[in-house]
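Work Package 3 committed the consortium to producing structural models of liganded targets before the mid-term review. Because experimental data for this complex are still outstanding, the team generated a predictive model from sequence and the ligand definition alone, so that downstream docking and mutagenesis planning could proceed in parallel. The input record is reproduced below exactly as it was submitted to the modelling pipeline, together with the SMILES string for zinc ion.
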Amino acid sequence: MLPVDSHAHLYDAMYAGQTENVISSALGRVGFIICPSEDRKTSEQSVQIASGESRIFAAVGIHPLHTEHVSGEDWKQILSLAHHSPKVVALGETGLDFFSKNCDRELQKYWFSRHIQAAGELHLPLIIHDRKAHGEILSLLQKQAHGVVSGVIHGYSGSLETAKALINTGFYISFGGSITYPGSRRIRQVASTLPLDRILIETDSPYQAPFEKHGELNVPENVWYVAQALAKLKQMPVSEVIETTGHNAAKLFGISRN
Ligand SMILES: [Zn+2]
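The resulting structure, written out as tokens with the ligand in place, is given here.
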């Protein structure tokens, strides 16, 4: 069984000239890949990449840091892709980023809320970006999504308490390269405690390279390092981590694994 990378930006300009190599190398070592988007243009790119490859799937949406220049026409096009392309398995990445001081928080909340509503209407899960906005995201999901929409908080960096509340609201928690760093004690503690049947793994390629590949361009097959780190933290065989997190991703995104 091969691990699933639930978050890789395959269209990213950092892969310029080597996208095909990155993808073909990755597909030899991972089961499937979810490619989330940041705006209209990258949503179109994700769908295009996914359309050409049976084991790549797309999520379409507007990243919280890209909410300032979205037009009604952009949103219409994103929803149309979600509605018409069989390779779109989620909306995202959406969410809130309160780390950046430059992007209006009310506008971010407005668009996050629209994604939650659209996910309910389209029966799709959400891929959520959460940076320094843990409490705000939890309360919006509790209000709008509980019992209606599921999804995943990607690259999780919040507390154990918030993670448990997110799980109770019907969401999964995804861990990436950060759990491979011995110094990331707090997040490693959270990962070791949460139930494996609510965990996804990811790379967030081309960003967030794992400890073993620090300073390099991150690629989807590095999800193996994340799986190994999680197995070590949970003191279980890596095969079990790969099997269960892969099963979780397949279930959340409605993908059949053969
Ligand atoms: Zn991302």
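Reviewers should note the following from the model. The longest strand covers residues 88-97. These observations will guide the Year 2 experiments.
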